[in-house]
Design a protein that fits this description.
By secondary structure, the chain is of the alpha/beta class. Among the domains are: about 200 residues, 3-Layer(aba) Sandwich (Rossmann fold); about 110 residues. Helix content is about 60%, strand content about 20%. Strands 2-1-4-5-6-7 form a six-stranded antiparallel sheet, with helices on one face. Strand 10 and strand 11 form a beta hairpin. GO terms for molecular function: ATP binding. Pfam families: SMC_N.
Length: about 575
C-alpha cells in the first residue's frame, strides 16, 4: 500500500505530506481544489510523463516521494528490485522523482539512482491509476484484444510467446523475399558494389592478430638506436675488461677458498658460482643479439604501408580486423543471394509458404484460446454489470480476422466488445452505444475482474463515477469498496455514496498564504466528515435535514462495509 506521499513545489502545491490508510481512501473537495493534482503527482512518481509545467511557479524543481509497504514478501516487485540491483528494506519501497526547470529527471528507488524506464516498470507493479480517460481505452477497439489477453492470463501467454517467435521468423523471411522484387538496375548496382568491396577485402589477405604484431614490430624499428645502445651498454657492463663478470669471478674464487677451509661459506659459494655462469650465458646471448641486429628502413616502410591498408579497410568496413572479416562473410552471403536469386527465390518461396502455414496454425490456436477466455470474460462482466444495475445489458466479444487475411504480432484476430444496454436491442460495438455512465460502469466491472488476477498494491480511481447518480451511484460505491477489501484504493469522487464508504476521508481545499494559492489536505472524522457529506448532498447550504441525511448515509455505509468483511 501507499503509506505516505510527500510533494514539494508541484503545480499549486507548495509543500504537502499525506499519510494514507489501508482500505478505501476518498478525496473530496470543490472542483479545482487540487484533488487531481495529487493523483498527477502519484502518476509522475510511477514513471508517468513529466513536464516543466508541473513545477510550481518560482521554484527550481518539483520533488515527489512515496513510501510503499508490502506485507507479501513474494510480491513480483521484489523480483524486479533484485533484477535491477536495488536493495529492499523490510518490505518498504521508497520511490522518489525530481523534475527540474531544465526538464531533467532524477529518479531513485530505495535511494538508488535509476532510469525513468526502471521507475515506470517498478511503479506499474505498485500503482494502477484509472481515470475518466480510461473510458477512452474502451472506446479504442484496438485495446479490446489487449484487455481480453490480459484476462486470459497464463493460459494464453505461453501460446502467444510461441506465436511471437514464429512471427519474428516469418517477418524476417518476408523481408528477404520482398527484396527479390526490387528494381533490376538497383540489384545490378548492388552486385557491383558488393563485388568491389569483397575483392578489396580479399586482396588485403587479412590475418587476425597481424595488426598487433605489426604495431609491435614498428615500435621496435622506430626505437632501434635506443635499443642497440642499451644492449651494447649492458654487454660492456657484463663482459667488458675489469667489468661486472670479472669482479664476480674474483668474488667466486675467494669464496671457494673460504669454503674449502670453513663449510659455513659453502652455500654462498655455490649460489655465487651459479650466478656467475648464468650472467656469463646472458652476456653471450646479448653478444649474439648485437651481432644479428641490423636496421632495415625498407622493412619499416613496408610495415607503415601495410598498417595504412588495414586502417583504410577499418574505416570502411569495421573497427577491427575481426569486424572486417565478419562484414566480408555477411556481404558474401548477400552477394550469393543476389547472384543466385532465381534459385533462392524458389527456395524462399517454399519456406515462406511453409512458415505462413505454421503461423496460421499457431494463430488459430490463439483464436481458440481467446474464444474460450471470451466466454468466461462475458460471464464475469455480466455478473459485475448486474451488480451495477445493468442487468438488462448483454455483452459479447466479437471475433473477426484482420483485413486481407494478414497477420500481426498478436495473431490474426480483430476483437471488438459488443454490448446491448436495453432488453430487446441488438448487440452493437461498445464504442457506438455506451453512454459516459455506462462506460464508467464497464471500466469498473473490468477493473473488478482484473484486480483479482494482479498484484497491484494501490488502485487509484480519478472521478470514475462521473455521469451516474441514484442507485447506480450506490452500486458503484459498493463495488469500489469491495475492491478495497483486497487492495488499497484511493478515489477522487463527488458522490456522497462513495465518500460514505471510505475508511479514510481526505478533504482537499485551496488556501491563500502570502498572496500565493496552495493546496491543503485535511483528514476528516466525526462531525467534520458529516458536514462534508452534507455539503456533497446539498451542493450548497448545510441544513439540519442534510446533516441528518449525511449521518444516515454514513450509518448505512458502515453496515454494508461490515457485510463485506
Amino acid at each position: 500500500m501507499l503509506r505516505e506521499l510527500d510533494i514539494r513545489n508541484f503545480a499549486i502545491i507548495d509543500a504537502l505530506t499525506v499519510s494514507f490508510a489501508e482500505g478505501l481512501t476518498v478525496l473530496t473537495g470543490e472542483t479545482g481544489a487540487g484533488k487531481s493534482i495529487i493523483i498527477d503527482a502519484v502518476h509522475l512518481l510511477a514513471g508517468g510523463r513529466g513536464s516543466q509545467e508541473f513545477i510550481r511557479h518560482g521554484a527550481k524543481k518539483a520533488e515527489i516521494e512515496g513510501l510503499f509497504s508490502l506485507e507479501n514478501e513474494q510480491h513480483p516487485v521484489f523480483r524486479k528490485l533484485e533484477e535491477f540491483g536495488i536493495t529492499k528494506s523490510d518490505g518498504d519501497i521508497l520511490l522518489r522523482r525530481e523534475l527540474n526547470d531544465k526538464g531533467k529527471n532524477v529518479c531513485r528507488i530505495n535511494g538508488k539512482l535509476v532510469t525513468i524506464s526502471i521507475l515506470r516498470e517498478v511503479g506499474a507493479s505498485l500503482i494502477d491509476i484509472h481515470g475518466q480517460h480510461e473510458t477512452q481505452e474502451l472506446m479504442d477497439e484496438k485495446q479490446h484484444l489487449y484487455l481480453l489477453d490480459q484476462f486470459a492470463g497464463k493460459s494464453l501467454a505461453k501460446s502467444k510467446e510461441s506465436y511471437s517467435h514464429t512471427f519474428d521468423k516469418y517477418m524476417k523471411l518476408k523481408r528477404e523475399f520482398s527484396s527479390y522484387t526490387e528494381n533490376e538496375q538497383q540489384i545490378a548496382q548492388r552486385i557491383d558494389l558488393l563485388t568491389f568491396q569483397l575483392q578489396e577485402i580479399e586482396a588485403a589477405e587479412l590475418v587476425i592478430g597481424e595488426e598487433e604484431e605489426l604495431v609491435l614490430e614498428r615500435k621496435k624499428l622506430q626505437n632501434f638506436n635506443k635499443i642497440y645502445e642499451s644492449i651494447s651498454a649492458a654487454h660492456e657492463a657484463i663482459q667488458g675488461e675489469s667489468k661486472g663478470l670479472d669482479w664476480i669471478g674474483s668474488a667466486m674464487s675467494e669464496l671457494e677458498h673460504a669454503a674449502a677451509v670453513d663449510e659455513t661459506f659453502t652455500g654462498s659459494s655455490e649460489t655465487l658460482s651459479s650466478a656467475f655462469y648464468l650472467i656469463q650465458d646472458t652476456g653471450s646471448e646479448i653478444k649474439r643479439i648485437l651481432d644479428d641486429m641490423e636496421f632495415d628502413p625498407g622493412r619499416l616502410n613496408e610495415i607503415e604501408q601495410r598498417l595504412a591498408v588495414i586502417q583504410s579497410l577499418k574505416r570502411k568496413y569495421g573497427s577491427s580486423v575481426e569486424d572486417i572479416l565478419l562484414y566480408h562473410e555477411k556481404q558474401t552471403d548477400e552477394l550469393d543471394k543476389l547472384v543466385n536469386r532465381d534459385q533462392r527465390f524458389q527456395l524462399d518461396q517454399e519456406k515462406l509458404k511453409e512458415m505462413t502455414e505454421d503461423l496460421r496454425i499457431e494463430a488459430e490456436e490463439l483464436t481458440i484460446l481467446r474464444k474460450k477466455a471470451a466466454k468466461s470474460l462475458g460471464k464475469a462482466i455480466m455478473e459485475q454489470l448486474k451488480e451495477l444495475h445493468m442487468a438488462k445489458a448483454s455483452f459479447e466479444v466479437n471475433f473477426d480476422v484482420l483485413p486481407n487475411s494478414r497477420f500481426d504480432r498478436n495473431g490474426h484476430d480483430a476483437i471488438t466488445f459488443y454490448i446491448s444496454t436495453n432488453l430487446g436491442e441488438p448487440l452493437k460495438p461498445l464504442t457506438k452505444v455506451a453512454s459516459g455512465g455506462e462506460l464508467s460502469r464497464m471500466m469498473l466491472a473490468l477493473k473488478t475482474i482484473f484486480s483479482k488476477h494482479q498484484g497491484i498494491t494501490s488502485i487509484i480511481f480519478d472521478e470514475v463515477d462521473t455521469g451516474v447518480s441514484g442507485r447506480v451511484a450506490q452500486a458503484i460505491a459498493e463495488k469500489i469498496a469491495a475492491i478495497s477489501v483486497d487492495s488499497q484504493v484511493l478515489c477522487i469522487s463527488h458522490l456522497p455514496q462513495v465518500a460514505a464508504m471510505a475508511d479514510q476521508h481526505l478533504f482537499i481545499e485551496k488556501k491563500v498564504d502570502k498572496q500565493r494559492t496552495t493546496t491543503a489536505v485535511t483528514e476528516l472524522d466525526g462531525s467534520e466528515r458529516t458536514e462534508e457529506m452534507s455539503r456533497m448532498l446539498s451542493g450548497a447550504e448545510i441544513t439540519d435535514l442534510t446533516l441528518q441525511h449525511a449521518k444516515e448515509l454514513l450509518s448505512l455505509a458502515a453496515d454494508r462495509k461490515l457485510l463485506m468483511k
